[in-house]
What does this fold into?
Amino acid sequence: MLSQDKITHMSHVLLRGLLERSLVKLKEEPPKVRRAIRLAIEAELKVAEEIDQLVRRKLQSMSRRIPEGSPEWEVLYRKFYQEEEQKRGRVG
It folds into this structure.
């Protein structure tokens, strides 16, 4: 998980980059837009953490123990993670 300071910094960097490249025109004041960006990042991180926990529980509940960090564990983790993202509509 990222700290609040890092997330806030990311929101500043993202907004500055969008404005410098004229990719957006603000209808709200920059602080309000940065807050919306920060909230969106936090929401995405929360969902990612939920998926991570779900996938880890799924791997732990398998009848055959697969050591965490092993190549097989990594492959299954990625597979289950992608499946869960698709279920939640996060991957196109």
In short: The mean pLDDT is 94. DSSP finds three helices and no strands in the chain. Helices lie at 4-20, 30-60, 71-87.
